[in-house]
Design goal:
- This is Homocysteine S-methyltransferase.
- The protein is about 45% helix and about 15% strand.
- It has helices at about 15-25, 35-40, 40-55, 70-75, 80-100, 110-115, 130-145, 160-170, 195-205, 220-225, 255-270, 285-294, and strands spanning about 10, 60, 105-110, 150-155, 180, 210-215, 235, 245, 250, 275.
- Strands 1-10-7-6-5-4-3-2 form an eight-stranded parallel beta sheet.
- α5 (about 80-100) crosses α7 (about 130-145), α7 packs across α8 and α11 (about 255-270) packs across α12.
- The chain is globular.
């Protein structure tokens, strides 16, 4: 299967979708987070994608991170409506891509922890085993696999069992390309404590895997984690370096887009070929990455 990386040395991803939506005036104080806007304000999502393409992104990641079937059905939608909302996330990103004159769309497959909305995407503390996670992911996976997206973005994965479940879904979908990126607790381990080398080995050499990497992880850990990934191209899109105060429900610290862009050059030189930003990064962060990577 042809990889999107066959056409370029480095792909630049977008930044924090929810972060920019808040800048655009959206209230995301809800367990559905940005996915709520698929029901209430899809035009805002479209504008956010447009802004990231204008800033220099090659890839738009869809607003399906928290858009699980279970979450939508918990809001009274039936299974067909849930499927339509998940696929709408791809339609919006595709429209922005087409308006920009090119680029790619990566359909976000967020972790089970995002549905729990209790911070478990940063701990891997789950109440489902591998088979349970497989069953939970399957409806959205199947909807996104047939959505027309260029690839799936399995992101912020904190759990080795969840990674194994996603690997099984990928094997069931031979027409699909995907990257798999993990949330990490330090420079050597994903959030549940599994060594990064073990996680990378799960996907090494798989022709469907566009990249293995890390996201929503402190920038200070990225170079160490890159060194532990072998057998696949590498994707990195860390958060801004700020830390989330779960008790106070606020971000602490500050990250400079110029410094972030300079760090992106170091990540590329260390071996990353897909680079972007996650929580608390903005179009300006992506603009700085583009300026540094050309």
């Amino acid at each position: 299967m042809t990889s999107p990386l066959d056409e370029t040395d480095v792909m630049i991803l977008d930044g924090g979708l929810a972060t920019h939506l808040e800048t655009l005036g959206c209230d995301l104080g809800d367990e559905l987070w940005s996915a709520r806007l698929l029901m209430e304000n899809p035009e805002a999502i479209l504008q956010a994608h447009r802004d990231y393409f204008a800033a220099g992104a090659d890839v738009a990641i869809t607003a399906s991170y928290q858009a699980s079937f279970a979450a939508f059905m918990g809001r009274g939608r039936d299974v067909h409506e849930a499927q339509a909302l998940v696929q709408l996330s791809v339609e919006l990103a595709t429209q922005a891509r087409d308006e920009a004159g090119g680029g790619m769309v990566a359909a976000s497959v967020g972790p089970y922890g995002a549905y729990l909305a209790n911070g478990a995407e940063y701990t891997g503390d789950y109440d489902l085993d591998e088979d349970g996670l497989l069953a939970w992911h399957r409806p959205r996976w199947e909807a996104l696999a047939d959505s027309g997206a260029d690839m799936l973005a399995c992101e912020t994965i904190p759990s080795y069992a969840e990674a194994r479940a996603l690997a099984r879904l990928l094997a069931e979908s031979p027409h699909v390309n995907a990257w798999v990126s993990f949330s990490c607790r330090d420079g050597g381990h994903i959030s549940d404590g599994t060594p990064m080398e073990e996680c990378a080995a799960l996907f090494a050499g798989n022709p469907q895997v566009v990249a293995v990497g890390v996201n929503c992880t402190a920038p200070s850990h990225v170079k160490s984690l890159i060194a532990r990934i072998t057998g696949s191209p590498i994707a990195v899109y860390p958060n801004s370096g700020e830390t989330w105060d779960g008790e106070g429900r606020r971000w602490l610290g500050l990250a400079d887009p110029v410094e972030f862009g300079a760090a992106a050059r170091e990540w590329r030189d260390a071996g990353a070929s897909i680079i972007g930003g996650c929580c608390r990064t903005t179009p300006e962060h992506i603009r700085q990455i583009r300026a540094n990577l050309g």
